Prior knowledge:
By secondary structure, the protein is of the alpha+beta class. Helices cover 19% and strands 41% of the residues.
Amino acid sequence: MLKTFFLGLFTVLTTMACSQKSISSSKVIHNQNKVCGKVSWASGNQMPSPDSPPRVPKGIQREVLVYELTNIKQVSNHKGFFSNIQTKLIISTLTDKNGDFCLDLPEGKYSIMVREDEKGLWANIFDGEENIFPFEVKKGNNEPINFVVNYQAAY
């Protein structure tokens, strides 16, 4: 009797595990244009030293804004902070307390920035054509975005 009970329990648990796996797989298929990332904060002296291990940037909560691919010539720039963005805002979201975020976006090329309170929008990566923090969304193949807010860091 006890043997039959455990065999039944094993069968139920195995069936649940297999069905959960297929549900997870189907979620991945439906979210092929999901882009995830992390916003982190780095400040102070970031120079490597043999006496101390490298500092790991800490995840922070920020508003993340995704625009159509935006060139530096399409914004007002005041001391590295942007305003008057001339391209279309596609989506914005708030990261969680650890800095993590995920967005569903159609395929295309975009710029990503974070809001730094009254200072404006900020980003620190540019391509060779002066596009602000460019990234591309491809169907089913999206790299995570690592966005480090480091305007108060020294390297």
